[in-house]
């Protein structure tokens, strides 16, 4: 049961990542940039 949920969750996550990859990368870059600027 747990393995089935894990595999299903991974498949859903991959589908979301494939569809919204550009948005995910852009959001990650914004977060990293803010953290980096705060540490100056």
Q: Termini distance?
A: 48 Å
The count of β-strands is 0
**Average pLDDT, to the nearest integer?**
90
Count structural domains. 1
Task: Let me know the largest β-sheet.
Answer: none
Radius of gyration: 15 Å
Q: Report the uncertain regions.
A: none
Structural class per helix/strand content? mainly alpha
Strand content: under 5%
- How many helices? The count is 2
List the helices and strands in order.
Answer: HH
Please give the share of residues in helix: over 70%
Morphology call: elongated
What would your notes on this structure say?
By secondary structure, the protein is an all-alpha fold. It has one domain. Helix content is 90%, strand content 0%. The chain contains two helices and no strands. It has helices at residues 2-19, 21-38. The radius of gyration is 15 Å and the shape is elongated. 0% of the residues are buried. The mean pLDDT is 90.
Per-chain topology:
Blueprint: H1 2-19, H2 21-38
Task: Provide a compact summary of the structure.
With 40 residues, this protein is an all-alpha fold. It has helices at 2-19, 21-38.
